[in-house]
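Take our chain:
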Amino acid sequence: MGDGGVSGADERLRRWRMVLGGEADGTGCALGGADAGMDGVLGALYGGDGGGRGRAGERSAGLGGSAPKVARWLGDIRTYFPSSVVQIMQRDAIQRLGLSALLLEPEMLEAVEPDVHLVGTLLSLNKAMPETTRETARAVVRKVVEQLEKRLASRTRATLTGALDRSARISRPRHADIDWDRTVRANLKNYLPEYRTVVPERLIGYGRAAQSVKKDVILCIDQSGSMAASVVYASVFGAVLASMRSISTRLVVFDTAVVDLTDQLDDPVDVLFGTQLGGGTDINRALAYCQSRITRPADTVVVLISDLYEGGIRDEMLKRVAAMKGAGVEFVTLLALSDEGAPAYDREHAAALGALGAPAFACTPDLFPDVMAAALEKRPLPAPVPAS
């Protein structure tokens, strides 16, 4: 019992020593083996102000701008921590120690743990990337894209195929094609109490595969720097939608200019390298372009993915949204398409869109198929918490 208590006290001291980071922390606990190695890689990143405290007996950060040293550090953190923690530490290293430029070196890219945030950083460096690095960078991006497609593609296709089948109603269905639930609900006013039955004046049927209604989807994506993760996810979803014959998909990215990347949708990696993260924002100009490409408004869904910080003409933007909705377009506004939680966004513009019947809300990648299914069926969107 006594030995267990001592062991427990030692473990608490060890943990405090790891948290406080430094032999002059008052714990009197020395680290060895893997603990010392773990403390070293933590100190290199989080010691002092990102550059280390540098005094005797304390943690000392030493990554500096040395590519070999950073590459070794990247290998070390993968030794001591699981993948999810490694990705967070990589992100912190890029932000705290200014390591973005080093990602332009192929040996650095080969050492990192690929994730959505790393892809965003690489895309922001796209124009500065030398040819010697470009193929390595594409391989890193492709690995992340393939992981996302594996996670999201099957469910997206299944969910949207079901939505398209349900929306492709026929007014004079054969008996086997009648959707009895919807038929009964549509004819409740014809209920005859004396016979305890409903007279089905109007039959509603499931559309058969050959008669399914084709829908047009336009993804309009803000490529300002804060939207990096959203751009990655939207590109993957764009490629998945484009692979479905029942949906005609257009993908448009914008800052102060508008770029149509629809012809690259067969490969989301090409789409991503066709973007340029950063710069200003002109939502009105982007929506004007999208509006000009709509030929069947009643069968069109426009998805605007933006934090709504508009640098263009606000009133014109709102007029365009109102006009599209008035013509029968389903308009969806996503403040973010990512797993990062509540985003920063322009609340005034979000409220104005909500007043037009186009509520703006953040959406996780796992919720996106349900949002799209509701839009295709013209049902209320499954928004978690509409912005106001």
Summary: The chain has 14 helices and eight strands. Residues 1-6, 49-61 have pLDDT under 50 and may be disordered. The first strand starts at residue 191 and ends at 192. The radius of gyration is 27 Å.
